[in-house]
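S1.2 Input.
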Amino acid sequence: MNTALFPQPQAVARARSPFASPVRTDAPAATPAEAARPAGAEIELRGVAKRYGDKTVLSNIDLNVRPGEFVAIVGRSGCGKSTLLRLLLGLETPDAGDIRIGGEARRAGVSARFVFQEPRLLPWQRVLANVALGADRRLALTERRRLAAEALAEVGLSERGGDWPSVLSGGQRQRVALARALVSHPRVMALDEPLGALDALTRIEMQGLLERVWREQGFTAVLVTHDVSEAVALADRIVLVEGGEITLDERVDLPRPRRRGSAAAAAIEGRILARLLGQPGAR
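S1.3 Output.
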């Protein structure tokens, strides 16, 4: 599903509650400011199914994502990846099963953001104002703008707040859209092919940026991607969806930051591609 990289307001629950942060031995120690931010939330799906008319898109989905974990969902076009992500964030309603985030019903109490493929920045608003749209509307305008400036600094665009979106490159617009999603320090970030429209070098740069802000903010990340190498570069686990079911759940036990082209990464990528391509002997 190719939609736009923009945090949709209906996907966001405003209230926040404390939740234990995971221990990642490869991550740098948290600063006091980072420690004060909301931690990632656990995601639980049990027996989830989704149908459109007579067509079953997803059936009997069971999935656990630990607080602060980065999970990538891969599979062929039409396998149900994006539907699964939309169910998780409440943009679709399951026909069966239970979805809980942070131990609560899906729509209750957890700050989340949905990041899509295209930026969809408002052309009549300058960059800082676009980012401030992602902040809690209950805050004063000056506070929303302060948080927006911090988010722009996180994505390396602190000097572009006064620019119009039209003068930015494609990669810079994606950074602005990511800053808008990050400005509220979400506990869950769902990403649906967010880098699919970028050129190869910009895509690699953005992968590094995503990993950095994930490690700094500690949110739980669920990424849908067609790019298996991207999944290996970013994820703690890779989940394969085939025919509307989860058929493989592969842990990526590689140190961070990860070396592209390493034998260990290539082996994981090869196993998943073999399964996707239906090659003999693939488990």
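S1.4 Remarks. Confidence is low (pLDDT under 50) at residues 1-37.
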